[in-house]
Amino acid sequence: MYGNPCSFVLQVKNSNKSYGLWLVYIDSRIHLDDRLVAYNAALTALCHHASAFDRGNVYASACILDLFLQMMDCLCMSGNVGKAIQKIQGLFPMAANSDEPPSHLLSDILTCLTISDKYIFWVCCVYLVIYRKLPDAIVQQFECEKELLAIEWPSVHLQNEEKQRAVKLVEMAVDSVKVSVNSESLDSDTNVRLAQQFALCHIRCTLVLDGPACCQNLLGKYMKLCPSCVELVLLSSRLQTNGTGGVSFEGFEGAISNWPKEVPGIHCIWNQYIEYALQQEGPNFAKELTVHWFNSVSKVRYPLNEILDTVDGNSSHGLLELASASNPDFLTSSSNQMEIMFGLINLSLAKLLHNDHIEAHVAIDRALKAAPPQYIKHCLREHAVFLLNYGSQLKKDAPVSEQLKILNGYLNDAQALSVYEPLSRRFIDSIEKPIVQQLIRNILSPVSSDFSLVNFVLEAWYGPSLLPPKSNQPKDLVDFVEAIFEIVPSNYPLAFSVCKLLCRGYSSINVTSDSVLYWACSILVNAIFHAIPIPPEYAWVEAAGILGDISGIELISDSFYKKALSAHPFSVKLWTCYYNLSKTRGYASTVVQKARERGIEVG
């Protein structure tokens, strides 16, 4: 497959700054020990080159971070979490209870990373020490530039020694980041955004390790450092309770009162306040809040005497009744796209709660058009829920064709969303001739369409299952799912939902033939096979669990494991699933031998 091994190694050595060649070289290593040696060699070479020639290079930093995280993931999935943690402990000046010496490689890696990548490095190290794995949100971004988005910090029980190790690492991470910020610049929007995301991760991590009291103290410190960070203000507002631990709105009231008028974000804070009130107290209180919101923001736009002339003395919401999404005068001329979007969403909520569905629809349509890329998913959810409940073109029993029409419209609206291009393909941009560039792109498999946006809308419509509740007949289910896969063929989360629905034998689905289950397994495997970059290990493991519970799909299972163990050849979980299957088919000893050739022990 890789030709002459000696020739290939020579090519890597002669182009030791090539991330793409190092990836191929790493993937060609058959045994686990050789794979880990290759990771170390690649990181050493890339760090050496970056230190000498490319210090501060964003691409070099992203490649080094990616290979480091892939190496840690390889250790975790191969059953060597302890070794991964020991490597991280090598960062400590005195690594007590560690077989690893102080890690010069990790120090070199940190030196070569940009500020934004250092944030990600430290968050991932802390997360691995606490949860014994990397964050799913980061693993999904392998071979791409990374962001600290959607990282969940669930509660976890740690032994005292484990907790102290995590706390010590957090302290080291914060000190390291402080030094980097003091010595470099945070002038780019990306660095500022990642600094704020690091602060949020630090607070949520502290909540897990030390509880709410310490979390509140830390939150206060960060809010003084980043007073205009909307996410920190919202987190603080939600964490505040009354004296008995019940719901309190004082945090939101204080945030609104103290928010600087010249800083964008007030409409976003109001939006979350109204949504929180709607969940906790119901529509009546939320309706009052929308009036309060509109009157307060109108004071910024109009003098008090104009408001008094406009509003009927007997009507506290007279000004709101006159407001129109077609001419949103309540928005100031300095409002940015985020403010415009949230202001229009708030107007839509206000009109909806006051039974003006026409103006509510106009407002939410305009909000979607104004949405900047980083907030478009939030706006899509609001728009999708509105259409489901109040839109004339999408009723709850609308045909699949209408749903697809709306989904395709959303995808067109979201064209501004950034596409994660694999780091290994960046070399194409440096090719001077456009014809050659296009030829290379045609040879390589295209990057999969992002299914997260489609699933975001499906979840807003149908909940976590992503499936319509009225799919009582197999044909309805098949038509719906096949239509979605026409849009995003790699949508394996949707395929998981389909398989789980059928395997659980829901009474609402009349499964009269094994062919429906066979179809569900086929679309699941095909979706995973279609995905580029390769899906993370946990997706393959979940699929293996589903396939193992279904009979009569031997050909599908054989094809799946061949691909799965090629994609993740050092996954103990996948080898164990394959071994359990092989015991029922009579070739368990063969699987044990193949796993052992990879350095994995099963059975």
What does it look like?
- With 603 residues, the protein is mainly alpha-helical.
- The protein is 66% helix and 0% strand.
- It contains 30 helices and no strands.
- Helix 2 packs antiparallel against helix 3 (32-52) and helix 29 (572-585) packs antiparallel against helix 30 (588-597).
- The radius of gyration is 27 Å and the shape is globular.
- Mean pLDDT is 84; it is low at 302-314.
Cα separation of the termini: 30 Å
Strand content: under 5%
Q: What is the count of DSSP helices, taking H or I runs of 4+ residues?
A: 30
Mean pLDDT: 84
Q: What composes the largest sheet? A: none
Characteristic terms for this protein:
single chain; mainly alpha; 66% helix
Write the layout of secondary structure elements.
Blueprint lengths: L4 H10 L4 H9 L4 H21 L5 H20 L3 H9 L14 H9 L2 H17 L4 H4 L20 H24 L5 H22 L1 H14 L4 H10 L10 H9 L7 H16 L1 H19 L2 H7 L7 H5 L14 H17 L3 H14 L5 H15 L9 H14 L20 H10 L7 H12 L11 H14 L4 H12 L10 H17 L6 H12 L5 H14 L4 H14 L2 H10 L6
Helix pairs in contact: 2-3, 3-4, 3-6, 4-5, 4-7, 7-9, 7-10, 10-11, 11-12, 12-13, 12-14, 14-15, 14-18, 15-18, 18-19, 19-20, 20-23, 21-24, 25-26, 25-27, 26-27, 27-28, 27-29, 29-30
